[in-house]
Specification:
Blueprint (H helix, E strand, L loop, with lengths): L1 H24 L10 E4 L8 E5 L8 E4 L14 E4 L7 E6 L8 E6 L10 E4 L7 E6 L7 E6 L10 E2 L11 E6 L6 E6 L10 E2 L9 E6 L6 E6 L10 E2 L9 E6 L6 E6 L10 E4 L7 E6 L6 E6 L17 E4 L7 E6 L6 E6 L11 E4 L7 E6 L6 E7 L4 E9 L19 E4 L4 E8 L4 E11 L2 E8 L5 E11 L7 H4 L10 E2 L4 E13 L5 E2 L12 H14 L1
Antiparallel strand pairs: 1-2, 2-3, 4-5, 5-6, 7-8, 8-9, 10-11, 11-12, 13-14, 14-15, 16-17, 17-18, 19-20, 20-21, 22-23, 23-24, 25-26, 26-27, 28-30, 28-35, 29-35, 30-31, 31-32, 31-36, 32-34, 33-35
Length: about 550
């Protein structure tokens, strides 16, 4: 160990002495000569050069095998090797111009376009048949095309009357025309002209006691038509009565024609009595008849009419009914009965006696277990009939029933003062952007019992509801409505019919406000967890931030 330490110490002293000698002599800096080329560069390879130190006593040499750098090819012009045609590609080539370099490269020449001759007709079109025209490539036999020339159709001249078939007042005529290209004839019927009558002329004119006649004549064929003119109606003055009728006696009335002086007379029937309402004179009973009277409002005549006895079948008029007598005692399961009898006509009347109350044993027993669909029901037993005597219902602990629940959004009253103080929550939707949103279903005690999945697609809105678990909640009386804006919402409209769930409903405009609500029965534990608007929603924002943004959009509409 001591020998090793001694050896290291000697090495350290020698190193220090050599360092002192170097410092005394000074450091050497090379003075390089210019580069001398050892081998020249080619198109693809670098050359090499050398330089040496020019200071006396220094033999240092340095080599650079990338000096000068490769020259790269000096390409000549492209020369066509195989010319391109309209059915085959060609090829061209170029070579490096540097001495000693044999490098070359080729490239493809694209096919030439077909040099089509102008279209020329091979089969001319006629009035009734299509024609054909053709074209082809001047340079190859592979391109020949044909196309249809649409038939010309007839080019008819003017219509002219057909000799011997000219239309008149009572007969149809005919016209003919010819095609100016092929001479094809075409005919058509010219409807008969009909008579061209002048005005009606009277001969003789009618009166209020005799009919007349009138005629008219055709200006084309002189045909004449006539028809009778009924006699005129009398121009009577007002009716005058002589004498006027009364309730029991008739009269007459007469009127005079201003044209012929004739009179028109007709009898007038008696007016008949105008009686008032019937009034009782003597009220009938079950065994005795009565009477009633009425008076004419015009002449005071009195009409009296008997009223028959009511008899035992009528409930009224029994003045001698006995007391009610219990005939069938009631129990706690059956009704009783009591009767009474009329001493005059023997009518018997019956009435029901209510059941007696159950006698409860006051021992409450559950007869119906409560769940989301029904409350718990308890009952006691009657000690007489052993049927339920008393019942009571209640919702079990941990269950809430018939709680008004909304898809969570801002309170509608914040955007519509008319809804201030209500618990209605509204959701603003952008109908111009296709997207799907998930809004929690939040109960009045801030539990999340499910989700409303709202999908906006091409101006339609689809609303679907999902529960947190099939047995965790029951969503009843579900309905949703859509409005143009928050100002359009009213409590009356929110009680209206629901739009359909689970199908796309088209809405108008660029935006809409929807309200999704229901009655919820749910467990207050398990998957139905407390909800906070500080929770993160679908896009990384909190529900409170989303509500604030929706309120701004509602306010800007």
């Amino acid at each position: 160990m001591n020998k090793k330490r001694r050896f290291l110490g000697i090495l350290l002293v020698l190193a220090m002495m050599s360092g002192l000698l170097a410092m005394s002599a000074g450091e050497h800096t090379h003075s390089w000569s210019n580069w001398s080329e050892l081998s020249p560069a080619t198109c693809t390879s670098s050359g090499s050069s050398m330089r040496s130190c020019t200071k006396d006593g220094c033999s240092a040499v340095e080599y650079d095998y990338n000096r000068p750098a490769a020259l790269g090819h000096d390409w000549g012009n492209w020369t066509v090797v195989t010319p391109a045609t309209c059915i085959a590609e060609g090829q061209e080539k170029r070579e490096c111009k540097r001495a000693g370099c044999t490098a070359s490269e080729t490239r493809t020449l694209s096919k030439l376009p077909h040099d089509m001759i102008p279209w020329h007709v091979t089969t001319p079109a006629t009035c009734d048949n299509n024609g054909v025209e053709e074209t082809s490539c001047r340079n190859c036999a592979t391109q020949t095309q044909t196309r249809v020339i649409t038939k010309l159709g007839h080019s008819y001249g003017q219509w002219n009357p057909l000799a011997g078939d000219v239309a008149d007042c009572t007969h149809d005529g005919k016209e003919i025309r010819y095609c100016t290209r092929c001479g094809d004839p075409e005919t058509r019927v010219v409807p008969k002209l009909g008579h061209q009558f002048g005005p009606w002329m009277g001969s003789p004119d009618p009166t209020c006691t005799a009919a007349g006649t009138r005629i008219k004549i055709c200006a084309r064929c002189a045909h004449m038509e006539s028809e009778p003119v009924p006699m005129l109606e009398h121009q009577y003055g007002p009716w005058k009565g002589d004498p006027n009728p009364t309730c029991e006696a008739g009269g007459w009335r007469v009127r005079i024609c201003a044209m012929c002086g004739g009179d028109d007379k007709e009898p007038l029937a008696a007016l008949g009595h105008s009686y008032g309402a019937w009034k009782p004179e003597v009220d009938p009973s079950c065994t005795f008849a009565g009477s009633r009277q009425r008076t004419c409002t015009r002449c005071g005549n009195v009409d009296t009419q008997p009223v028959p006895a009511l008899g035992p079948a009528q409930p009224a008029g029994h003045n001698n009914m006995g007391n009610w007598i219990l005939t069938t005692p009631p129990t706690c399961t059956t009704f009783g009965e009591e009767t009474r009898t009329c001493a005059d006509c023997g009518r018997v009347e019956k009435r029901k006696v209510e059941k007696l109350p159950h006698t409860s044993d006051e021992i409450w027993v559950i007869v119906q277990a409560g769940d989301l669909r029904q409350p718990t029901k308890e009952a006691t037993t009657c000690t007489v009939c052993h049927q339920p005597a008393k019942t009571k219902t209640y919702v079990p602990n941990g269950i809430k029933q018939e709680q008004r629940t909304f898809a969570y959004g801002p309170l509608a009253g914040q955007a519509n003062p008319a809804l201030g103080g209500s618990d209605v929550r509204a959701i603003w939707l952008d109908l111009t952007t296709n997207a799907t949103y998930t809004f929690p279903l939040v109960t009045p005690d801030s539990l999340n019992v499910g989700s409303a999945i709202v999908t906006v697609s091409n101006g339609t809105v689809r609303v679907s509801l999902e529960k947190n678990g099939e047995t965790a909640s029951l969503l009843r009386y579900r309905y949703w409505q859509a409005f143009a804006d928050a100002a359009s919402i009213s409590l009356n409209k929110l009680e209206g019919p629901s739009l359909p769930f689970d199908q796309a409903v088209p809405l108008q405009g660029d935006s809409a406000v929807i309200v999704v609500q229901m009655l919820a029965n749910y467990y207050t534990f398990g998957v139905n967890t407390p909800f906070s608007d500080a929770e993160t929603a679908w896009d990384g924002m909190s529900y409170q931030e989303i509500n604030d943004e929706m309120l701004q959009n509602m306010a800007s509409e």
